[in-house]
Every structure is written in structure tokens, then in C-alpha cells.
Specification:
Dihydrodipicolinate Reductase, domain 2, binds nicotinamide-adenine-dinucleotide, 16 strands, 2 domains, 9-stranded mixed sheet
């Protein structure tokens, strides 16, 4: 449901501060709690079954700690819930919060299946609540600098991204039923950027993939490991293409590396995410160094302004999250079925992962 900014959801600060409950007190929960606090909201409670963690984060912002959000969701002084749990829990907490009449900022990715994300969206529509997703790279200066420079390359452009890292220290990130692996967990950021660059969703996906970490002792406890490595091509309207190489299956400790390149008739843009980028349009490259910046903080400050001042909507919507998830699921289906997959196919569930055999 699209509505004009702020209409029907604006919180009047004359009635007291914007009250927030944070669910999940891990890395993202800690960020959300501190950024809501810094934005001017009152963090009422931080909830995590791991009570010690909830207490540590709650103490940072003067909130209560709880193992379960239950009673806090019905409080009149709570207006927003930040869902910062592992992804497989996003739907249940988001729907519970919305049914209790709260707005939700849910961490990305939206969910592991389209139907779960659609149920989250349906709840938000039924109860007329804001449901936004933490695609916070929209608030990273690099995102805007890429868009600005990309516009100087002429068209059509060819895009390429390489994103690699050693095994992620959080096992949930390798669990197909937890956070879903990098094609779901990480690529949503890239898809959100390329939706702007290519002015729409891809039409089809052609992918190959592997689980490099299959058999690694560090992941032995995971019953269904997510695909951790893939090479895929996205075809956008007009025949424009983007190609992605992603892996979280390198040896533990290998640092995170993300590079993009965009080439068009008028130039080349090479991006080293987190460091900067170089634009080649003549003999002398133009360099841009990435400044220190906290995109999570900027995102929450923006959502706070949207909810309290009616600022224009910039924080990602559940529809943006569903768009990204559909591409991820198309990639996984393409790997599993070894064929090109169209985005207009039924993409509800993650197909059984049968990546190509190595070697
Ligand atoms: N925006 C981004 O770029 C970004 C970056 C990292 C993670 N994330 C997303 O944020 C979410 C959380 O990731 P994280 O890195 O903070 O993970 P984390 O492991 O650091 O924290 C998750 C927390 O959730 C808690 N938890 C587990 N079960 C729970 C339950 N039933 N109820 C409430 N809490 C529960 C855990 O105890 C843990 O404290 C994931 O969906 C992840 O994909 C987003």
C-alpha cells in the first residue's frame, strides 16, 4: 500500500517520545538500539532469549531487558519495533508487532520465502502500519557516488561485482534455514542498487553455484548448508546485463572484499566498496575516497524523521525487500535446476540445493 509520506502514521512528539522495542540483541540489535536512542527515540525494551545479551544492550540505552517481547508489544508507549533476529524469525516477530499496532523496521533480508514476506506485507496493509527493511546501503555515500558516476558512463553499461570473504564467523549465515547464505543475505544490497542502475528488475537469471564449505569442520553442526558461492548473470530489460561472483566459502579469516566495475561507451568506474572508487573517462582517472560513515545510523535517523516529521520516504519498503528476495530465489533455482530462470516464474520456495559437483 503506497501512501503519501507520513499520512496516518505520524507520531506527535507532544504525546511523548517515540517508543521502540528492539528484538534480537546481537550486532544489529545493538546498532538499532543505540541509533534509535541517538535519533531521539526512547528505547523501552531490548529482547533476546539470551538474557545477558539483552541486558548488555539495554544498559547502553537505559532500556528494560527481556527474554521475549510479549508484554512490551501491547504497551501504549511503544510505537516501533526493530526486528534484528536471524532471518528465519523475521516473519513471526514482524507480524506479531504489526498486529499489536506497531510500525516495524525489520533487518534485511525480508525473509527466506516470498510467501513469508508477502504475509508480512499483508499484515502491514491490513493494520495500516509502516513496514520497512534495513537495506541501509541506501544511506551509504558510496551508493550515491556510484549512481552519480554511473550516469557519466553513457549506455548501455555492463556491470560486474565480486564479493568474497572467508567462512562467516556466525554459523547462522551459512544455514539455509537460518539467514539463507550469501545469495539471499548479502546480494539483496547489490540488487537494491542495481534496480536503480538498470531502472527495474532483471528479466532472467543464469547461475552456477557451489557450496565450497561443504565438509568444513567449522560448519559441521549445520544440517542444511546454504549455497555459499555462485557466479550469475542477470539480464535486465533492454538486454543490459550485470554479472556477480560471490563467495563466503573461502578459508576462515580471509577478509571481506567487494569490488564492482561498470563499463560504458564513455568510461569505466571501478569501485572498491568501503574504500572508494575511480572513474576513467580520459587519461587521468578521477578518484573518490570513501569517508567514515555509519549507514545504519543514517537509516534510523531518516526513519525517525519520517515517523515524527513526515519526511519523504527513503527507507526501503517491504516491496523492495520482496523484489530483492525474488532475484535471490531465482539465482538459487537456476543453480539447482541448471537452467536460465525467468523472474516471472513462480519463485516461492528455496529449491532443494543441489549445487554442481566440484571438480
Ligand atoms: N543491514 C545489514 O547490512 C545487516 C548486516 C548484518 C546482519 N543483518 C541482518 O540482521 C539480522 C541479525 O543479524 P546479526 O548479525 O545481528 O546476528 P547476531 O547473531 O549478532 O544477533 C542475532 C540475535 O538474535 C537473537 N535471537 C535468536 N533467536 C531469537 C528469538 N527467538 N527471539 C529473539 N531473539 C533471538 C540471538 O540470541 C542473537 O543475540 C539478520 O537478519 C541479518 O541478516 C543485516
Amino acid at each position: 500500500m503506497e501512501r503519501p509520506s507520513g499520512e496516518g502514521v505520524r507520531h506527535d512528539l507532544a504525546n511523548g517520545p517515540l517508543g521502540v522495542v528492539v528484538i534480537g540483541a546481537g550486532d544489529l540489535g545493538s546498532r538499532h538500539a543505540q541509533h534509535w536512542h541517538a535519533a531521539g527515540a526512547r528505547v523501552v525494551a531490548v529482547c533476546d532469549p539470551w538474557l545477558e545479551r539483552a541486558r548488555e544492550v539495554a544498559a547502553l540505552v537505559g532500556a528494560e531487558a527481556a527474554t521475549h517481547p510479549g508484554a512490551h508489544l501491547s504497551r501504549d508507549d511503544v510505537h516501533v519495533v526493530s526486528v534484528c533476529t536471524p532471518t528465519f524469525l523475521h516473519e513471526s516477530y514482524t507480524v506479531a508487532a504489526i498486529e499489536a499496532g506497531k510500525h516495524v523496521l525489520c533487518e534485511k533480508p525480508a525473509a527466506l520465502t516470498v510467501s513469508a514476506a508477502e504475509r508480512m506485507k499483508a499484515a502491514a496493509e491490513l493494520h495500516d502500519r509502516e513496514l520497512r527493511l534495513g537495506l541501509m546501503r541506501r544511506f551509504d555515500p558510496a551508493h550515491h557516488e556510484i549512481l552519480r558516476r554511473h550516469a557519466l558512463l553513457g549506455g548501455p553499461t555492463l556491470a560486474q561485482a565480486t564479493i568474497v570473504a572467508g567462512l562467516r564467523p556466525k554459523r547462522m549465515m551459512h544455514d539455509a534455514r537460518g539467514n539463507g547464505g550469501p545469495v539471499i543475505d548479502m546480494c539483496c544490497h547489490l540488487f537494491d542498487l542495481w534496480r536503480v542502475i538498470f531502472d527495474g528488475q532483471p528479466e532472467s537469471v543464469s547461475a552456477h553455484g557451489y557450496t565450497f564449505a561443504e565438509g568444513r569442520s567449522e560448519l559441521a553442526s549445520i544440517e542444511e548448508k546454504a549455497l555459499d558461492s555462485a557466479l550469475f548473470t542477470l539480464t535486465y530489460p533492454g538486454g543490459r546485463v550485470g554479472q556477480v561472483q560471490i563467495s563466503w566459502g573461502l578459508p576462515s579469516g580471509v577478509q571481506y572484499i567487494e569490488r564492482h566495475s561498470y563499463v560504458g561507451p564513455d568510461g569505466l568506474l571501478i569501485v572498491n566498496w568501503n574504500n572508494g572508487m575511480s572513474l576513467y573517462r580520459g587519461p587521468h582517472p578521477e578518484h573518490w575516497d570513501a569517508p567514515e560513515h555509519d549507514a545504519w545510523r543514517a537509516q534510523i535517523a531518516q526513519f525517525y524523521r519520517e515517523l515524527t516529521e513526515g519526511a519523504p520516504r527513503q527507507v526501503a519498503t517491504i516491496d523492495d525487500g520482496i523484489d530483492a528476495l525474488r532475484i535471490s530465489l531465482a539465482v538459487l533455482r537456476s543453480v539447482a535446476e541448471r537452467r536460465e530462470v525467468r523472474l516471472d516464474e513462480e519463485l516461492e520456495r528455496i529449491p532443494p540445493l543441489e549445487p554442481e559437483v566440484l571438480g
